[in-house]
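Risk register update: the risk of archive-format incompatibility is retired. Evidence:
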Amino acid sequence: MYDVIIIGGGVSGAAAARELSRYKIRACVVEKEEDVCCGTSKANSAIVHAGYDAVPGSLMAKLNVKGNEMMESLARKLDFPFKRTGSLVVCLSEEEMPGLQKLYEKGIANGVQELQILNREEVLAMEPNITDNVYAALYAPTAGIVCPFNLNIALAENAYTNGIEFKFKTEVENIRKTDEGYELYTNRGTLKAKCVVNAAGVYADKFHNMVSEKKIHITPRRGDYCLLDKSAGKHVSRTIFSLPTKYGKGVLVTPTIHGNLLVGPTAIDIENKEGTNTTREGLDEVISKAGQSVKNLPMRQVITSFAGLRAHEDGSEFIIGEPEDASGFIDCAGIESPGLTSCPAIGEMVAEILRDKLSLEKKEDFIATRKGPVSPEALTKEERAELIRKEPAYGNIICRCEMITEGEIIDAIRRPLGARSLDGVKRRTRAGMGRCQSGFCSPRTMEILARELGVSMSDITKSGGKSRLVVGTNKDTL
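Archived output:
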């Protein structure tokens, strides 16, 4: 019997787990995939939003602004990359100015600091590649960029270090209310808990509706993206938005924390909760709309495209708390944008609800910090030479595009909740994220995984499940 079971290993579930690990508690995260950060949390804009878009007074607005304020301190404590770059919302004509003014007023009402409306000359001085048609822009200095993989993994590692269990490849199939709490029927047996946190992304409505008569409905909203090479990474230095619509913040252009340029997303409502395929129409829309706010985009530098799903709840609001008829079941549902930004505040809110409900006691030995992986590129020549002298694997380049070493890959595998697949290594080290998109480094990374895990190359997958890459041999070893 667990005190708490968290369904979902994305940023919301991992943030809740990390905050709960401050207390004397027996808790577990169950995740149907083979790793954390395999759903919405891995495929998004990686933006830390300032907080001017959400409806004033909404939970979304409150947690967006609070999460933004918490992010810098959290990045220092958990050692993941974060940078306040600022953002601009582009207005193209005098007729659009009321919309920009409304956005400014919402931001002020939400408590966003340092918001300014800039004129055409001020915008062009900041971003020379903004469209020549720019009329004005809303400038938010507190906006930023983050690595969503590193954020999610850092939260999960710190929770694990503080005693939270993680069960991967464990899919919840049904939930039943009992006198003691809840029984979760999974593909790997039955789990019991006094309380459940429903942080299941696009599947959160499915689990909510198993225990409550007051139904909710989540629509998977697909967003297509194009990722450009690092040679295009300085085309803009801030996140550039168009004016938002009822479907979201529109197509943006932004630098990434690792030096690439990201363009997207679309906002296409679909039925398939696993529908992360891109479409020609979607990518054409991304390219066309991005060009309306930023000129001369070097789209020939695209190295990959991808799509993610946002968990859009019909009320366009975060749902966090207990349903009236399901005591001990804590929803963390409808966490679409700005969910990544809000996750530190979401985790804190969920933990406070459970602290009061279960009368949890604080630990005296909670470990608030986590040391991230060694990054050779951040070292001086002398420091790097000393590292290689002590650990020669850090001198063996495996991924030539991103200059990732064997030492970094080994570390990714051996860390708490370490990588077990090619994508697991990729999310932790960026091996395979460069120009060739793992075309050259995959075999060597697979060899390292097989060696470190003590398995055959044929057992190594791209992303768990049936995604094996080696399907047979064409020559027997003598």
